């Protein structure tokens, strides 16, 4: 066992987090990835796949862009591809605790909050809640028929309650919509294609990130199967650790860069003081090289093991002054002036 792994295991499995410890907050230790690492089942680096629409595939019409703007997701639609540091995400997964929906570090807890979503992705975080009923897989096909006008095939185009992105791309991408330009129902087809596009964008929501981190941090010694396998009706993962985390990984990576000197994040420069753009995804897209050096799991584990209270920026957005706010549109100023923003994203304490 390497020094980095030993230090991580010692922190993650101390007496108060022992699998059979009564009344402990972290009651699910026996099924956590850190328990697997403690037993010598080190999974190495995960293969991470961020979900964001390919701009070449989804070339929106002017009307579609207007529809997206009406939803408040237009900033999200502007996101370009970003190189994901797989080792960084892997190490953060190992620190994630589903019991508290937060990452546990030697000096405290930290988690991605709605404030981060507003600043990094430019998403609206106030207003009526968008919720829906959970439903079994048998309702997926008729629901797609209703909102998209097409019926996906079970176990081919959708599994459980998850519709495959490839099916959406194959049927609703720009080239397919262009073929229907002269169709008398073109306006309806344009709306349906926009709905399919929005399926990609809503995968950036905070709940999806929490769900992915929870699935990826799961470990089961008895069922070492690929966590990507899902039950047909529930869509739930079973057994072993999720090998290919997907979702808003850019959000998680920028959250880490904003708060810590972590991975291969470039050292701050004087020019950074004047390069702030909103949302902050655009800022980091400029700061990071197109082919950045990637870190190793061993390196990031060591960095997190040695993290001190002063090495974590508790309120990273306080530096954005009135001058920065004055450059924003009225709509964007509303986003980051939300009453939801202001609560700390980190709880400091002694060792858990």
From TrEMBL:
Region Disordered: start-end pairs: 225-244
Domain named Aminotransferase-like plant mobile: residues: 72-204
Biological process, per Gene Ontology: meristem maintenance
Domain of life according to the entry: Eukaryota
Name listed for the protein in its UniProt record: Protein MAIN-LIKE 2
InterPro entries according to UniProt: AminoTfrase-like_pln_mobile, MAIN-like
Ranges of biased composition (kind: Basic and acidic residues): 225-241
Originating organism: Cinnamomum micranthum f. kanehirae
């Amino acid at each position: 066992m390497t020094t980095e792994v030993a230090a991580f295991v010692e922190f993650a499995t101390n007496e108060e987090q022992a699998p059979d410890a009564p009344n402990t907050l972290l009651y699910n230790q026996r099924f956590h990835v850190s328990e697997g690492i403690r037993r010598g089942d080190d999974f190495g680096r995960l293969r991470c796949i961020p979900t964001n629409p390919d701009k070449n595939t989804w070339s929106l019409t002017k009307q579609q862009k207007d529809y997206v703007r009406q939803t408040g997701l237009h900033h999200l639609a502007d996101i370009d591809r970003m190189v994901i540091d797989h080792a960084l995400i892997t190490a953060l997964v190992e620190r994630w605790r589903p019991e508290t929906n937060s990452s546990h570090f030697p000096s405290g807890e930290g988690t991605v909050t709605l404030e981060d979503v507003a600043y990094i992705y430019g998403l609206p975080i106030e207003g009526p809640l968008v919720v829906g009923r959970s439903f079994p897989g048998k309702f997926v096909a008729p629901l797609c028929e209703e909102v998209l006008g097409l019926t996906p095939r079970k176990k081919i185009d959708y599994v459980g309650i998850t519709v495959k992105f490839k099916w959406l791309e194959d049927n609703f991408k720009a080239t397919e919509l262009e073929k229907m330009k002269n169709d008398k129902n073109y306006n309806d087809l344009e709306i349906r294609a926009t709905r399919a596009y929005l399926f990609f964008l809503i995968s950036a929501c905070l709940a999806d990130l929490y769900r992915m981190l929870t699935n990826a941090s799961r470990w089961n010694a008895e069922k070492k199967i690929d966590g990507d396998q899902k039950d047909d009706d529930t869509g739930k993962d079973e057994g072993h650790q999720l090998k290919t985390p997907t979702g808003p990984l850019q959000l998680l990576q920028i959250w880490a860069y904003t708060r810590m000197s972590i991975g291969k994040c470039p050292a701050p420069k004087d020019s950074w003081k004047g390069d702030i753009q909103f949302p902050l995804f655009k800022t980091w897209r400029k700061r990071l090289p197109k082919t950045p050096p990637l870190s190793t799991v061993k390196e990031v584990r060591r960095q997190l093991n040695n993290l001190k209270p002063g090495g974590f920026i508790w309120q990273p957005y306080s530096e954005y002054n009135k001058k920065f706010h004055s450059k924003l549109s009225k709509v964007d100023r509303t986003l980051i002036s939300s009453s939801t923003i202001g609560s700390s994203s980190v709880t400091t304490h002694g060792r858990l």
